[in-house]
């Protein structure tokens, strides 16, 4: 019996690379929510690759994915797979009702607010923070009631789909509070702060990075796991096939793994939110800002963040629009509770409302592409003092299932940390699953291309397409692995 990796997003690809184990991926291409795709102006068809004339908008499934932080070794790996460019973050809070932009982070740019507000905020922020349990309480203690009423409450109400009053605080490093910087920023420019002051992005697009990683792994596409029989140690796939396993390294969301295995734990499940990502390609409007992204506490159509891919890099625009920069490539994020998934008709209605609102703001003119994606588990949260994550992971570990990555472990982390997680977990399986075991698999496997060939593929950047999404070069569709369904 063999061990497998579940999920071919960046975490699963890193684990596949360092372990040599096969990766089962539900989609027809690699990269998960980080995958880039391309759409020609006026078209409704997603392309896995930029067309030969390069005349297409580049978007990402999960909205703009900028690579921040990361271990030096992970960054070294990234750069060895694909050339990257570095960018200095430009982002702001946009108060539409006041038509006012305040650079991010808000608390370090108080001079953009009126004097009475600044005085009140400074008075509140000089108090020593007290106790807190929930995210709302934490915000009040650290940012004070005035900034909370102005921005933090309305923004987080949208960003967490209303959960901020019950969930534990999370990711405080995203918006650090340093009194010295707050005071300095009330009068003059304070040093840049936050987790993504600098970020990098692959020159040829994030899809190229995922596809090149996949070309070095044994990825089986269109292989959606639908259930896991922990007694028989069998993976059941959506196409009705079944496969025995020894151990599993899973990047699939923790809640979904509990459901698929039928395991239960005592602690109540921690919550998560879904995100509807709306990608828009449009004519650039006269008021379109230069920011990379904006935090929106009061947009009428309900989104909490709008990002401008092409303000980061013009390569996100169709080639013909790049010299004049007269188009703009945009992502818009709106959070939902998972049981409030809108219907197709409601999504269409929302898309129209967003386009109209962005036109009213003068950000865009005519829209050329409007393309939504629902991400069911996008942001994961925890209740104060919750033991659910530990209990769920331990229950799975007892069955030989190891959870890794942002959704596997139910934590906030970006691409770079997801890659590190995958490499680390995969490498520990390399030791256990030495090459002979790989060959002893119950069923024949698609062998990765020899090293020399793989290098050639990476250099050439050759790709093929399947069902409109990328299929890694050198990796066949997984027909050989299919076993007969068990009764
Ligand atoms: C809205 C949003 C914006 C973000 N922005 C950034 C950013 O700017 N920078 C950054 O670094 N990070 C960002 N992130 C985080 C980043 O997306 C994650 O860190 C990263 O995608 C995690 O990769 P993963 O492989 O663990 O998960 P995923 O990308 O979710 O991959 C999981 C894979 O499993 C597959 N799968 C699911 N179910 C099954 C099944 N049953 N059987 C087989 N396969 C299955 C999926 O198709 C998918 O390919 C953002 C996340 C969100 C939600």
Describe the structure.
The chain has 487 residues and is α/β, with parallel strands linked by helices. The chain is built from 14 helices and 21 strands. It has helices spanning 10-19, 72-81, 115-125, 135-159, 179-185, 206-215, 254-261, 309-312, 344-360, 388-398, 405-408, 415-432, 435-439, 451-460, and strands at 4-6, 23-24, 36-39, 57-60, 84-88, 91-95, 100-103, 198-202, 219-220, 225-229, 234-237, 242-244, 248-250, 272-284, 293-295, 305-308, 327-336, 364-380, 401-403, 464-466, 469-471. Strands 7-6-15-16-17-14-18 form a seven-stranded mixed β-sheet. A five-stranded parallel β-sheet has the order 9-2-1-13-19. Strand 11 and strand 12 form a beta hairpin. It starts with a strand and ends in a 16-residue tail after the last strand. The model is unreliable at 433-440 and 454-487 (pLDDT under 50). Bound molecules: flavin-adenine dinucleotide.
């Amino acid at each position: 019996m063999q061990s497998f990796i579940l999920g071919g997003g960046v975490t699963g690809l890193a684990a596949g690379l360092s372990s040599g184990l096969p990766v089962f991926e539900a989609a027809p291409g690699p990269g998960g929510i980080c995958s880039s795709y391309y759409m020609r102006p006026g078209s409704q068809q997603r392309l896995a690759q930029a067309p030969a004339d390069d005349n297409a908008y580049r978007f990402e499934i999960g909205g703009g994915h900028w690579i921040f932080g990361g271990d030096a070794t992970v960054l070294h790996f990234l750069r060895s797979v694909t050339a990257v460019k570095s960018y200095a973050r430009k982002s702001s809070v946009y108060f539409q009702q006041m038509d006012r932009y305040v650079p991010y982070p808000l608390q370090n740019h108080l001079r953009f607010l009126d004097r009475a507000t600044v005085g009140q905020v400074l008075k509140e922020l000089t108090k020593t923070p007290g106790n807190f349990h929930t995210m709302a309480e934490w915000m009040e203690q650290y940012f004070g009631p005035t900034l909370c009423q102005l921005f933090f409450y309305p923004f987080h109400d949208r960003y967490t789909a209303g959960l901020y009053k019950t969930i534990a605080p999370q990711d405080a490093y995203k918006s650090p509070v340093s009194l010295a910087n707050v005071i300095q920023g009330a009068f003059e420019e304070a040093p840049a702060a936050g987790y993504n002051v600098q970020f990098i992005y692959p020159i040829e697009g994030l899809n190229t990075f995922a596809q090149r990683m996949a070309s070095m792994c044994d990825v089986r596409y269109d292989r959606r796991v639908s259930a896991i029989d922990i007694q028989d140690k069998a993976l059941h796939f959506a196409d009705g096939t079944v496969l025995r396993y020894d151990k599993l390294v899973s990047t699939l969301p923790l809640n979904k793994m509990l459901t698929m295995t039928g395991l239960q734990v005592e602690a109540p499940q921690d919550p998560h939110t879904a995100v509807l990502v709306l990608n828009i390609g449009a004519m650039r409007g006269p008021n379109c800002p230069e920011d990379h992204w904006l935090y929106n506490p009061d947009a009428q159509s309900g989104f909490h963040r709008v990002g401008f891919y092409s303000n980061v890099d013009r390569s996100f625009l169709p080639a013909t629009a790049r010299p004049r920069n007269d188009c703009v490539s945009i992502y818009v994020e709106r959070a939902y509770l998972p049981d409030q998934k809108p219907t197709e008709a409601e999504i269409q209605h929302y898309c129209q409302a967003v386009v109209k609102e962005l036109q009213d703001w003068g950000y865009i003119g005519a829209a050329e592409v409007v393309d939504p994606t629902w991400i069911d588990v996008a942001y994961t949260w925890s209740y104060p003092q919750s033991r659910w994550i530990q209990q769920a992971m331990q229950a799975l570990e007892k069955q030989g299932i190891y959870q890794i990555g942002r959704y596997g472990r139910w934590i906030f982390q970006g691409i770079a940390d997801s890659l590190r997680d995958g490499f680390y977990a995969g490498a520990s399986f390399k030791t256990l699953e030495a090459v002979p075991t790989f060959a002893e698999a119950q069923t024949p496997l698609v062998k990765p291309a020899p090293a020399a060939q793989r290098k050639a593929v990476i250099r050439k950047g050759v790709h093929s397409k399947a069902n409109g999404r990328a299929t890694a070069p050198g990796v066949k569709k997984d027909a050989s692995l299919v076993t007969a369904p068990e009764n």
